[in-house]
Amino acid sequence: GENVEQHPSTLSVQEGDSAVIKCTYSDSASNYFPWYKQELGKGPQLIIDIRSNVGEKKDQRIAVTLNKTAKHFSLHITETQPEDSAVYFCAARWGFQKLVFGTGTRLLVSP
Amino acid sequence: DTEVTQTPKHLVMGMTNKKSLKCEQHMGHRAMYWYKQKAKKPPELMFVYSYEKLSINESVPSRFSPECPNSSLLNLHLHALQPEDSALYLCASSGNSDRPRSPVYGYTFGSGTRLTVV
């Protein structure tokens, strides 16, 4: 079935360190992989996404890598700041429209 | 306008009440979604509307009834809910494709309605 595994479930780093969150998906036909940041009391906010014809995408301090053969994709945040603290969800799209989320990673960046 | 607006932000209802959640977007997106999110869990898909037609129902109980009156609006009608239905209900929209069965990208979520059933 449709399944996205996400690790770690919690991640604590010091300000300025890098953070890496990893996801694995089950359906090799998936071809769209967004990442969302969710702050307390808010809806998920899209921070970066990648399509299957691309291996890596970067936007300032955030990058995403995709390994379609291994069905893995990862989020990399460099030079972390306290305001990066939030819950991060990976997701994969099944078919044309169905977006399935990973289990989430709570990132805590300490000053 | 790049937002999905949901009302109300908070709702408390009894198990015999009927209420509705509303969602609106003006991005020209032709796919709209309802997700349910329990505390410390990821959002779970409930319904998908594509071009104002219901395209996916994830086996949601009939006490939840979606409606898409036009391409900008999405409602979720609630009736005879249970306390375990208490959750954050998220609306999302995506896709500007002019073809109904083409892949969509760029899902935008609203801030949600925090529902408590008492």
Description:
Chain A contains no helices and eleven strands. Chain A is mainly beta and 111 residues long. The model of chain A has no long low-confidence stretch (mean pLDDT 94). With 118 residues, chain B is mainly β. Chain B is built from no helices and eleven strands. In chain B, strands 2, 4, 5, 6, 9, 10 and 11 form a seven-stranded mixed beta sheet that branches. Chain B has a four-stranded antiparallel beta sheet with strand order 1-3-8-7, with no helix packed on it. The chains are: A mainly beta (111), B mainly beta (118).
Name a few traits of the molecule.
heterodimer; A: 111 residues; mainly beta; six-stranded mixed beta sheet; five-stranded antiparallel beta sheet; 11 strands; B: 118 residues; seven-stranded mixed beta sheet; four-stranded antiparallel beta sheet; globular
How are the SSEs placed, and which strands pair?
The complex is a heterodimer of chains A (111) and B (118).
Chain A: E1 4-7, E2 10-14, E3 19-25, E4 32-38, E5 45-51, E6 56-59, E7 62-67, E8 72-77, E9 86-94, E10 98-101, E11 105-110
Parallel strand pairs in A: 2-11
Antiparallel strand pairs in A: 1-3, 3-8, 4-5, 4-9, 6-7, 7-8, 9-10, 9-11
Chain B: E1 4-7, E2 10-13, E3 18-25, E4 31-37, E5 44-50, E6 53-57, E7 64-70, E8 73-79, E9 87-94, E10 108-109, E11 113-117
Parallel strand pairs in B: 2-11
Antiparallel strand pairs in B: 1-3, 3-8, 4-5, 4-9, 5-6, 7-8, 9-10, 9-11
